[in-house]
Design brief:
InterPro entries: DAP_epimerase_AS, DAP_epimerase_DapF. By secondary structure, the protein is an alpha+beta fold. It is about 15% helix and about 40% strand. The chain starts with a strand and ends with a helix. Bound molecules: ligand LBFN2T5F.
Length: about 290
């Protein structure tokens, strides 16, 4: 079986071309592929399937609008609804492989259609849809409680504003959260304002641990910061802070920089998508014990 390895701001993926949906991808196989010592290594897997062969009626219903379905899996084998960096890398892969043309077109994801815009090379832009604000929430880390805002980008996020540099956080362990508030788990972001509409962020991802970037997470923190507006994040907690209707945010993550645009109707994520390697799995390793 062929694979391609790629990353978007160092959020890295094993891409599996499976146009006809022939591949049985168990959670154990995904975890083996993503293992950084015993496998190829990655924060997740992107299976490239024709939408009409997705094997999921809700996704196959999108076949008239999107030729390709991004079947995203976390490194632990769990399924997630969306992956913002993954969409960029997936689109770059399709164009590179001659399976799609440069330009603007829709991809199918479990969270619905996502429109990508890309040239023959360079950055990829994605219409990420409207961030959905779901109120406040809490996470705990290193004996401290952090208040944040719950934001859905198709997948669940808790965006916590902090005052100190994010580099000082210990994210070797998963932040604690209230399972009643997040029954499906949550991606927890910590962000700090470092300038005018400029944030730095680190993330602990559901199903993958700390990653060097999370595209849906960068939009979630920009949306949380924009909602706070000039009144600061505390204003939102106090019920004030209408936020900016249209704004562009620079978000620095350990793996690089992305740009998030919020226009009151939807959100856009722009950033790099890099293909690193092509290869072929050994069947004795892949299908071995
Ligand atoms: N890294 C991704 C998000 C991947 C899914 C996430 N771990 C989840 O379980 O929701 C991104 O770039 O958005």
């Amino acid at each position: 079986m062929r694979f391609v390895k790629g990353h978007g701001t160092e959020n890295d993926f094993v891409i599996l071309p499976d146009p006809d949906g022939a591949l049985e991808l168990s959670p154990e196989t995904v975890a083996r592929l993503c293992d950084r010592r015993a496998g190829i290594g990655g924060d997740g897997v992107l299976r490239a399937v024709r939408t009409k062969a997705a094997g999921d009626p809700a996704v196959e219903a999108l076949a008239g609008e999107a030729e390709w379905f991004m079947d995203y899996r976390n490194a632990d084998g769990s399924v997630a609804e969306m992956c913002g960096n993954g969409v960029r890398v997936f689109a770059r892969y399709l164009v590179d492989a001659g399976l799609a043309a440069p330009g603007g077109w829709d991809l199918a994801t479990r969270a619905g259609l996502r429109r990508v815009t890309l040239g023959a090379s360079g950055d990829v832009s994605v219409d990420m849809g409207p961030p959905r604000h779901l109120g406040g929430g809490e996470a705990s880390l290193g004996g401290r409680t952090y208040r944040g805002r719950r934001v859905s980008m198709g997948n669940p996020h808790l965006a916590c504003a902090i005052d100190e540099p994010v580099a000082g956080l210990d994210l070797t362990r998963a932040p604690g959260f209230d399972p009643a508030a997040f029954p499906d788990g949550v991606n927890v972001e910590f962000y700090r304002r470092v300038g005018e509409r400029h944030l730095e962020m680190r993330v602990y991802e559901r199903g993958s641990g700390e990653t060097r970037s999370c595209g849906t997470g960068t939009v979630a923190v920009a949306a949380a910061a924009a909602l706070a507006g000039n009144g600061g994040d505390q204003a939102v907690e106090a019920g004030a802070g209408a936020g900016d209707a249209t704004s562009e945010w620079t978000v620095d993550v350990p793996g690089g920089r992305v740009v998030v645009t919020l226009d009151g109707r939807t959100s856009h994520l722009r950033g790099p998508a890099v293909l690193v390697a092509d290869g072929e799995f050994r069947n004795d390793w892949l299908y071995g014990a």
